[in-house]
Design a protein that fits this description.
Elements lengths: L2 H18 L1 H14 L7 H15 L2 H13 L4 H37 L1
Helix pairs in contact: 1-2, 3-4, 3-5
Length: about 110
């Protein structure tokens, strides 16, 4: 399936959801539009942030949607991949932070019990 088909599938699904739950669908769409409106951060910056979060969360549809959003807002390929690199550092950082804190505490506590 092409990326364009994936976007179409997502939008079609969101439309069907909105038909079934109009108050929720409309509220979600309004909230999302407000979040991505030009503000203290540019639309391009917001799309780059959304892409980084999508990549870190491994959310395929949002990754596709926000990659296109980045391109539509004029982000360069370098900016897009730099945002992805930051996401990788964060996702890897979250793993490391759990290892050096929570896992370390568990090892310390559980090995004393044996």
């Amino acid at each position: 399936m092409s990326m364009e088909q994936c976007l179409h599938e997502y939008k079609q699904g969101l439309g069907m959801f909105t038909q079934q739950m109009p108050h929720v669908g409309r509220a979600f769409n309004a909230f999302t539009e407000a979040c991505f409106a030009e503000g203290a951060l540019s639309k391009k910056e917001k799309q780059l942030i959304a892409l980084a979060i999508s990549v870190a969360k491994q959310d395929e549809y949002c990754t596709i949607y926000h990659t296109k959003g980045c391109i539509d807002e004029g982000a360069t390929e370098k900016e897009i991949f730099e945002a992805c690199a930051v996401a990788s550092a964060l996702a890897g950082g979250a793993t490391m932070s759990q290892a050096v804190t929570l896992v370390r505490q568990c090892v310390n506590e559980f090995t004393r019990m044996h």
